[in-house]
Amino acid sequence: MESKRWVILAVLLCLIASGLTCSAKAQKDTAKPQQEATAHTVAAPERDRNGCVVMENSRYLMYLDEKTLGISIEDRETNFTYSSVIKDEKSNPSWQGFLNSGVSVEFYTQKSTMPERVDLIGGTPAITYSYYTDGFDALLSYEAYEFQMTVEVRLTEDGMTAGVKKDSIAEGETYKLGAVYLYPMFGATKLGEETGYMFVPEGAGALIDLKDNNSRYKTPYTKKIFGDNIGIDKFAVSEFGRPSVTEPEPVTMPVFGMVYTEEQQGFLGIAEDGRYNAQILAYPNGVITEYNWITAKFIFREVYTKQTTASTGVPSYEKDPYMRDIKIHYKLVSG
After folding, report:
1. 103 - beta bridge partners?
2. 12 falls in which pLDDT band (50, 70, 90)?
3. 3-state DSSP percent of the chain in helix, strand and coil, to 5
4. 271 near 328, Cβ under 8 Å?
5. Which long-range contacts (CB under 8 A, 24 or more apart) does 89-93 make?
6. 44-82 pLDDT, tens per residue?
7. Closest CA relative to residue 293, chosen from 63, 39, 86, 13
């Protein structure tokens, strides 16, 4: 079992190296096209017997649930299927909606600096689809929040991509965009039903086991890619002006992953666009829900302390968002 673990981890690390080589010199997000041009639109997409839209390429089949934006990807060679939404009845309504939505967003209002997370179940946006031979675009219009954006999903020869172009984002006066989650439940597992681990890029890399933790963990792993924003993020200091705890290793690469050792399958998630203001989140089972899940959270506005005197201040969110294209690439591996 241990040999399998390290072989698959080595594959993931090779993918990390190859996927990031071309972008290592980049110092900021660029205004490049969000997705590769798609040659063929599809007026009447194929559907399976459950009503899900079916898209495919030479390696994968992708099934879309139009109500939740949930997708399942089946590997033609191994028949292994990756799912991206979870129907859960034990969690509270807020978490049920988040688990069962392909995309979720967070909003701030003028009355509060606590973000409101809105999923596709509770937020009930109008969804307009455009289909292609290798994927789809979904225009999400949240009338109650005066907000809209278009999510672009494409199958690739090594997995899938999901992204949002900044030009597709429109917000009103009351609700301001705080953050976007793109398929946070992709590949998630329940309790100890799968053997394997999650991979987080802290330092040289760390692994979080997928075994049943019996509710031992109470807080998730949350870390900014490339480190904290020292102009906004708070730091704990002692009375001597030194850190009260040892600082953890920084996240130096915009990647994360999950490996299922018995099936010899796994995926590597890469925050390709928007990574300079994003977080890696990893939730072991027992932290709020029964599921192991890992994702990147793309941040558009942050909360900071607005000084009112030399020594005091009040929390406030950024008025001007860090508006940019965002994209996540899920590379699937096997063997």
Report:
1. 182
2. low
3. 10, 45, 45
4. yes
5. 90/289, 90/290, 91/288, 91/289, 93/122
6. 789 998 899 999 999 999 999 999 999 999 999 999 999
7. 86
Burial class for 210, CB neighbours closer than 10 Å (0-12, 13-18, 19+):
buried
* Residue 193 CB contacts under 8 Å (≥ 6 apart), including other chains: none
End-to-end, the C-alpha distance of the chain in Å comes to: 13
Using the Cα atoms of residue 264, residue 269, residue 270 and residue 273 in order, give the sign of their dihedral.
positive
Paired with 132 in beta bridges are 41, 135
The pLDDT of residue 241 is: 57
Sign of the C-alpha dihedral computed for residues 302, 295, 271 and 82 taken in this order = negative
pLDDT tens readout for residues 302-312 = 876 776 776 77
More confident residue, 278 or 17: 278
| Domains identified in the chain and CATH numbers | 2-23+38-334 (2.70.98)
Q: Residue 278, SS3?
A: strand
Q: How confident is the model at residue 108 (pLDDT cuts 50, 70, 90)?
A: very high
Q: How far is CA 114 from CA 49, 109, 236, in A?
A: 42, 8, 21
DSSP string, 286-335: TSSSSEEEEEEEEES--EEEEESSSS-EEEEE-SS-----EEEEEEEEE-
Could you give the CA distance from residue 57 to residue 65 in angstroms, rounded to a whole number? 18
327 in Cβ contact with 163 (< 8 Å) = yes
Q: Which two tokens stand for residue 38?
A: 């798609």
Q: Outline where the chain has alpha helix (H).
A: 2-20, 93-99
